[in-house]
Amino acid sequence: MLNIALPSSGPLYQSTIDFFNSAGIPIKRSSLRAYAGTTTFDKNIKIIFQRQSDVPKSISNKIADIGVLGLDRYLENIQNNKTKTLIEKLGYGNCDLVIAVPQSWNDINNMSDLVAYSNTNKLRIATKYPLQTQNYLSEHHMKLYEIISTNGAVESAPQTGIADIIVDISSTGTTIRENNLKILDDGYILFSEATLISNPVTLSNYKDKFNSAKKLLYFILGHMNSKLYNTIIFNIESENEN
């Protein structure tokens, strides 16, 4: 049995269902509270709905064999897991991991400005992505800061006094602007979208899992490749039937 873990909620939930349906892999879920789904695509496939952050853990622990989650979530949980990307970019669920500061900080518009400011002011940074935040700040040689991990509404952290700036996911930038924040000109840490991951060990050790996974990938890749082409229908009048 091939176990596939899909997002149980959030922006990627419905878009993942739609993607699989469009690829000829129908997914059904009895209710939004159900953690198991079904598909008529292959009798040897079982659908599991989980939080995105739990998908890599489930695959590493062999609870699931294949999973879908945002690339941002995958990279944040990449340490100490045994997963590999099958398809890094599925073509939907696009968003950016960004650094945003208060709009009132008129003199800080890029990372150079922020690093210079942090040399004399210890910055408190609220985020759900401490690993990627730390890596990015290290690349820019920022040393004086404190990362505050939070699972709440990150955008509100500066207004409530929890933090000075934030690192968070943004699709349109609207929520960030509505909370009186601005994205730094070069404050784009990651361009993320939905990604397909797996545990290569379980797939290689079990023939039935491997065969179902191969069939699944064939349909997914076929669907993705079909988007590269357009169908053109001509209606040409002619006296000759041929």
UniProtKB/TrEMBL annotation:
Name this protein carries in UniProt: ATP phosphoribosyltransferase
A Pfam family this chain is assigned to: HisG
Keywords per UniProt: Amino-acid biosynthesis, Glycosyltransferase, Histidine biosynthesis, Transferase
GO cellular component: cytoplasm
Catalytic activity as recorded in UniProt: 1-(5-phospho-beta-D-ribosyl)-ATP + diphosphate = 5-phospho-alpha-D-ribose 1-diphosphate + ATP
Source organism: marine metagenome
Biological pathway: Amino-acid biosynthesis; L-histidine biosynthesis; L-histidine from 5-phospho-alpha-D-ribose 1-diphosphate: step 1/9
Domain ATP phosphoribosyltransferase catalytic: 51-211
GO MF entries: ATP phosphoribosyltransferase activity
Top-tier EC class: transferase
E.C. number(s) listed in UniProt: 2.4.2.17
InterPro entries: ATP_PRibTrfase_cat, ATP_PRibTrfase_CS, ATP_PRibTrfase_HisG
GO biological process, one term: L-histidine biosynthetic process
